[in-house]
Amino acid sequence: MTARRILIVAFCLIAAGCAALDANESPPRVVPPPPEGKKLVELVKAAFTMAKLSGAPEVSQVRAAHDTQRGDWTFCVKTNSPDDSPKYAVLVANDAILEVRSFVLIDGCDKETYHPIEITDRRSGSAGGHADPAHQSQRRH
Prior knowledge:
about 20% strand; six-stranded antiparallel beta sheet; about 30% helix; single chain; alpha+beta
């Protein structure tokens, strides 16, 4: 009977110890800053390639990912094609792409405003994205 009492007491102590833990007391998660500048251009270029899109890339604003999404940040990409081209959600964490997928409603890609982004080919130095024609004509003169 003593072994049984010891097991019951041990079980109660363990249960009481676990009940004292509060999930809200965990340290806050540190979220890195959103990708911008050159890093954003690199991510857009990689996502555009992964999605196998043609034409010039257009991108939405970078925004915080929802709790149900993977990663810390998300943005949407599409081609500049005049037809109703597909849009893709890009999920990012630590300046790296976690996933490029056809968007779902929670991604909000269908409600985004897109803008062209210039992607420079490092090997040739030429712009592969939407370039301003005024800048191109100035380079020729």
